[in-house]
Amino acid sequence: MASVETHKNGTAQNLLSKAPWTDEQGISMKIYQGVVLTLEVIVLIVKMYATWFYSIYKFFVPPEPKSVKGEIILITGAGHGMGREMALSFAKLGGTIVCVDINSTGNQETVEMIKDSKGKAHSYLCDVTSRTSINEMAEKIRKEVGEVTILINNAGIMPCKPLLQTGEKEIRTAFEVNCLAHLWTLQAFLPGMMERNHGHIVAMSSMAGVIGLRNLVPYCGTKFAVRGMMEAVHEELREDPRDFSGIKLTCICPYIVDTGLCKNPKIKFPSLMKILSPQEAVEHIVDAVRREYHEITIPSSLYYINQMFRVFPRSVPLHIKDFLDSGLEAQ
Ligand SMILES: NC(=O)c1ccc[n+]([C@@H]2O[C@H](COP(=O)([O-])OP(=O)(O)OC[C@H]3O[C@@H](n4cnc5c(N)ncnc54)[C@H](O)[C@@H]3O)[C@@H](O)[C@H]2O)c1
């Protein structure tokens, strides 16, 4: 292909100026390159339209939810809130759950709840900010349970106050738990998925990773970062010459879920932006994982509202934001 030749031998201009072409050969070469480029652009346009129509079709006819029976599903922050609910839901669907939390009591409670309903679960105490602890835990899990096939990076904390009142330690810890921990678990568990070309990585971002919100400057930073990291991992796997199409990625962006994490929510239109129970939110999360969606917001309407208003000049969506007048008050 012309583009490959161009990479190997220098630019097309160099090729033409250096080579001992006759005038006729030079013109033929230019015509050839023009034709190849035109064909490449036509193929690109056809691919784009085909994918666009397929996406519209998939919107109306969503993919069937996959089975998670027999999968080994590791959930960080499984001792409370959405982590616990995900653990219970995936266990009901036949997954073996590896519950990971810094809070041993909550984590053990989740494991007991799963076992009481005849599910399979294991408890591992781990501070996800420690890369060493994660690697040691990963070794133990491999020996005691097996290879993790679904990794759910859920553990998170939320300092909620104006930036200038947020201490250095709070900021660093927020990034360690909400963001860096995702990288450590990926480094620990992705290689096993790559060996088998089978796996699923789920990351908890937030609507605070889609739009900036007051009182949540570091938190927004961590949640925007999670979305960026997930997109980059996706590209790293997609562009690798080996086949990693069996590894799926899902990024979850909930608005406000009633777990106690958001202390002072303020919602002007509760019917439009209702505070969800952890059970309601987890129904959406489990569905998104099983249908292998790339990214969802909870509620889903926020995804489309955001996409639509992002095409306008910056100040336009800000009017909408002011009108909706929702967010979190400082703790
Ligand atoms: N609740 C919401 O409104 C909301 C909205 C958007 C996104 N999220 C995100 O969803 C995820 C879950 O939120 P939640 O509301 O269920 O939280 P939660 O506070 O109910 O539970 C978080 C769990 O993470 C654990 N954890 C905290 N630090 C840890 C560490 N260093 N190592 C291991 N475990 C640790 C806690 O012990 C707890 O069990 C978080 O990432 C959060 O940022 C929550």
UniProtKB/TrEMBL annotation:
The chain crosses the membrane at residues 31-50. This is Short-chain dehydrogenase/reductase 3. The gene is LOC113402128. It is a multi-pass membrane protein. GO terms for cellular component: lipid droplet; membrane. Keywords: Lipid metabolism, Membrane, NADP, Oxidoreductase, Transmembrane, Transmembrane helix. It comes from the Eukaryota. Catalyzes the reduction of all-trans-retinal to all-trans-retinol in the presence of NADPH. It comes from Vanessa tameamea (Kamehameha butterfly). It is found in: Membrane. The keyword Disulfide bond does not apply. Belongs to the short-chain dehydrogenases/reductases (SDR) family. GO terms for molecular function: all-trans-retinol dehydrogenase (NADP+) activity.
